[in-house]
Design brief:
Elements (H helix, E strand, L loop, with lengths): L10 E5 L9 E5 L24 E7 L5 E7 L6 H14 L5 H7 L4 E8 L7 E8 L5 H17 L4 H17 L4 H15 L8 H6 L3 H11 L5 E8 L6
Parallel strand pairs: 3-7
Antiparallel strand pairs: 1-2, 4-6, 4-7, 5-6
Helix pairs in contact: 1-7, 2-3, 3-7
């Protein structure tokens, strides 16, 4: 059997609370050695060229149709990542979000969500929607497209803009109510950005965003000619 070695560049130890006074402490310790049958993990960067929509339909034994959309999203830590984070909150971040009021509450969908995936490299930006009884995947997609077009073509109102920013600031602040989450943020900041102090700059990432930033990012990332659309349909509709 081939003998393999796994190499770990470093690990992060985050210590918070007494006697550290909540400032936090990050330590980098080099490590190498045999830890089992693993090989070194090489970073692979994937890039998709071209600008065209990819569509498909999957038929299955389900009760309600669904729509899955995938767009290219920005890499985490960039300004555009935080802009997209606000855009997904506008779409599905609460009871007054657009998907909730214009899709769920109007009986078009059972639930529709927009998800900004957090990856080191540019990753996927998902929209997932489950159709309500009697509604088709096509109707759901049309309703989603209307909301996407609004973001691309219109400035978010000042009231909605301030509301979503306030909600995001509250979310950031409330996420730090435990020593574990604080230690994790210290460690993530150093692991990915070599900057443990990013925890103290998190709110600035959202406060600096403008309504124009939201519109420009929507045009760039919610591009219909550069997305994947999957309809999850009832098997009984396959031959219709």
């Amino acid at each position: 059997m081939e003998k393999r070695t796994r190499f770990t560049e470093r690990f992060i130890i985050g210590l918070v609370g007494a006697p550290f006074g909540l400032e936090g402490f990050v330590k980098v310790k080099p490590f190498s050695g045999e830890t089992g049958h693993f090989s070194r993990l090489e970073k692979v960067t994937l890039r998709q060229n071209g600008k065209e929509e990819i569509r498909d339909v999957v038929y299955d034994n389900i009760q309600l149709p669904a729509v899955f959309m995938a767009y290219r999203g920005p890499e985490m830590g960039t300004k555009e990542y935080y802009i997209i984070d606000l855009l997904t909150s506008i779409l599905s971040g609460g009871k007054s979000a657009r998907f909730k009021t214009n899709l769920d509450d109007k009986g078009i969908t059972v639930q529709a969500v927009a998800v900004n995936m957090e990856f080191e490299d540019p990753g996927p930006l998902f929209i997932i929607a489950i159709a309500n009884a009697g509604k088709t995947a096509e109707e759901v997609e049309n309703a989603i497209n209307i909301e996407i077009d609004r973001l691309r073509n219109e400035l978010v109102s000042e009231d909605e803009f301030q509301m979503v920013k306030a909600a995001k600031e509250y979310e950031v602040a409330s996420s730090r109510t435990s020593l574990f989450t604080i230690a994790e943020e210290f460690a993530n900041g150093y692991t990915y950005f070599k900057d443990a102090n990013r925890i103290n700059k998190q709110l600035e990432n959202y406060s600096s965003i403008t309504r124009e930033d939201l519109k420009n990012a929507a045009v760039k990332y919610f591009d219909k000619n550069s997305r994947v659309v999957l309809h999850y349909a009832l098997k009984t509709q396959q031959n219709q």
